[in-house]
Prior knowledge:
Layout: H1 5-28, H2 30-73, H3 92-116
Helix pairs in contact: 1-2
Amino acid sequence: xxxxxxxxxxxxxxxxxxxxxxxxxxxxxxxxxxxxxxxxxxxxxxxxxxxxxxxxxxxxxxxxxxxxxxxxxxxxxxxxxxxxxxxxxxxxxxxxxxxxxxxxxxxxxxxxxxxxxxxx
Length: 120
């Protein structure tokens, strides 16, 4: 049976007629209305219970996925690194001279890099 627009319209029309007929019966017959409402309530409670079970399962799967993801990407907690000891062996004047020398070398490297860039 193909799913054509005509079939959808016909099925929609039949659903509307069935709903209208059921509604008329429920309005006219108090006993039938009570029975049907009770049945719908039980069906709804059963549906809710099924959804709760499914939600619990999905939650557990999601937690497991997140835990695996974090365990794979984050390194295990390591002990803190040992403290670094720095010894100052040169006098302040010597340090200033070394700093000046390194600054000049850095400036020279920067100029060389800028000149070696293609297209400029």
